[in-house]
Amino acid sequence: MDKKWINPAPLGLSGFALTTWLLSMVNAGWFGGADIPMVLACAFAFGGTAQFFAGLFEAGAGNSFGFVAFCGYGAFWWTFALFVEFFAKGVEGPFVGWYLLLWGVFTTYMWIGTWKKGKVLMLVFTALVPTFFLLAAGAMTGNGGLTVFGGYLGLVTAALAFYLAGAEVINESWGRVVLPV
């Protein structure tokens, strides 16, 4: 009897979605800096660790895209949380902008990789690419409006990732396509 492998994608997508949603609420201006510790806790545990482990399981399944995406964005959340908690003092906004810009570059080539994947996954990355570039531009220029706009796009990104995670769990549970992916 062949052993059925788990699908790690819903875990990775959920960690990404939940952490992205929390940070995006701050970026959109719904909450302030005092609420960042909750984002950081989530970034270390769910956005970082759970997502990274999902990526390792994707590697075991031979899915290079899932491996790079989940391990990459898991590492993003770890670096973000470590930076904010321990290393941010004295770092200038434009340098933070470069950090975000380079994540935008990473996200752009991952987005191109989604063109041969499911439509909803492509939509997640279609929203995530401009999110990173807007947040980068906001940090580089000090224009808070760009950060707020990036925050709202981050909320769209998170909602799409939540949908995809839920659809994959629901479809597997029902043994058929209940929600299109």
Structural overview:
There is one protein chain. With 181 residues, the protein is an all-alpha fold. The chain has one domain (9-168). It contains six helices and no strands. Helix 1 packs antiparallel against helix 2, helix 1 runs parallel beside helix 3 and helix 5 (119-141) runs antiparallel to helix 6. The model has no long low-confidence stretch (mean pLDDT 97).
How much helicity do the residues have? over 70%
Mean pLDDT: 97
Structure classification: mainly alpha
Q: Roughly how many Å apart are the termini?
A: 29 Å
In N-to-C order, the SSE pattern is HHHHHH
**What is the domain tally?**
1
Compute the CA-based radius of gyration. 16 Å
Count the strands?
0
Estimate the global geometry from the Cα principal axes: globular
Tally the helices. Answer: 6
Poorly predicted spans: none
Described by strand count, sense and barrel closure, the largest sheet is: none
Give the percentage of residues in beta strands. Answer: under 5%
Features:
181 residues; single chain
Fold blueprint:
Elements: H1 9-27, H2 36-60, H3 64-87, H4 93-113, H5 119-141, H6 144-174
Helix pairs in contact: 1-2, 1-3, 1-6, 2-3, 4-5, 5-6
Summarize this entry quickly.
With 181 residues, the chain is mainly alpha-helical. The chain has 6 helices and no strands. It has one domain (9-168).
